Amino acid sequence: MSNVYIIGLGMLRFGKYADRGVRDMAHEAVNLALQDASLDKKDLQAAFFSNTFWGMFDDQHSIKGQVALRSMGIDKIPVTNVENACAGASTALHLAYTGIKAGMYDAALAVGSEKITSPDKAKSLGAYAACMDVAGFEEHISKLTSLSQSFQLDIPEEDNPMGAGRSIFMDAYATFARWHMSKYGSTQDQLALIASKNHWHGSLNPLAQYQMTMTPEQVLNDAPVTYPLTRAMCAPVGDGAAAAIVCSEAFLKKLTEARPVKIIASVHGQGSERDMDGEDIGERLVNKAYNIAGISPQDVSLAELHDATAYGELHQLEAMGFCSVGEGGPWSETGATKLGGKQPVNTSGGLECRGHPIGASGLAQIFEIGTQLRGEAGKRQVEGARIGLAENGGGNIGVEEAAMCIHLLERV
């Protein structure tokens, strides 16, 4: 089986684009990746296209990838449409990786493109509920509500009721954050510190949706969403696209200007039926990835973690093995996760600041890790970056993600 390399990366700045659509954003990201790899469209042998809401918003179902790619002159090759909630783009990369690894293709494209902003704000926010069990939605929300109310915490009386004017995922994250605060003593101040760190990282990233710094105090004083989350701790609604081109070792040897990054592990899985104290999906999958790559958490130079809220980062620090379970907050306080620290996390600004167009986010993580391992990240460059980890979760069933992909990349 061939080793697999990333040879092309493309991404447009995430943001709110009233005059752009899924198709033209995908075109831009793919063209940037082709240019980065010094390849022509005809060199691609397969494509994997990630999108979540195009069908819901504009009735484009079923053949999304074929519509987007044929309209830019990429035809004849097999195109696979990928829909896996927030983990769609990383799943597309995983499928491209498996195709190369199996020897079916020598060069394949993974691309994610998403438009979520809408003049109808309620439509945008309501769409996220489709990333849960729709038929069991009311039962799920009832369980989250009961769980949230069972914790020994002082919750502000003016806290907004569940689902009020926001993505339902903010309520899910808030519930899990309250559990962690109740069990381990983590604090809202620690979440504010994480968000402040990511705002600083985002200020150094020209492709981030938010590029302004915020102090922990400013994060805490931002508009409340649902306790303990404030607006600055949560990923914004936005649009964007990102792409990666992967190839076999034999194909790589034919290239003269390649700046490859090696994929040393690509793991994909789904959540399980468990309670809050059961084995987490992230723990289970990352240990598999570490075993495949033959490394430990201490070997990771930097990571992009799925921080749809600041609590997401705190939790994944523990799940990925960067610190002990229950220590995500104190570990963040040490400065280890900040640029210049032991293991910088979300140097792109993360979902909180780089942005989170669902079907593109996983490949935006890969763009950041790849850029860092190539030594091309400019002011946010991690010195001596050798191995990067990208963890991308998607959807929610029960008390964890419905889907997740973890990739480990290595500098060549």
Automatic annotation (TrEMBL):
Q: What positions does the domain Thiolase N-terminal occupy? A: 4-143
- One of its Pfam families is Thiolase_C_1
Matching entries from SUPFAM superfamilies are given as: Thiolase-like (SSF53901)
* Top-level taxon in the UniProt lineage: Bacteria
Sorted alphabetically, which InterPro entries does this protein's record hold?
Thiolase (IPR002155), Thiolase-like (IPR016039), Thiolase_C_2 (IPR055140), Thiolase_N (IPR020616)
UniProt keywords (A-Z) are:
Transferase
Single annotated GO MF: acetyl-CoA C-acyltransferase activity
Q: Where is the Thiolase C-terminal domain?
A: 286-397
Q: According to the UniProt entry, where is the signal peptide?
A: none
Name of the protein in question? Acetyl-CoA acetyltransferase
Organism, as annotated: Desulfatibacillum alkenivorans DSM 16219
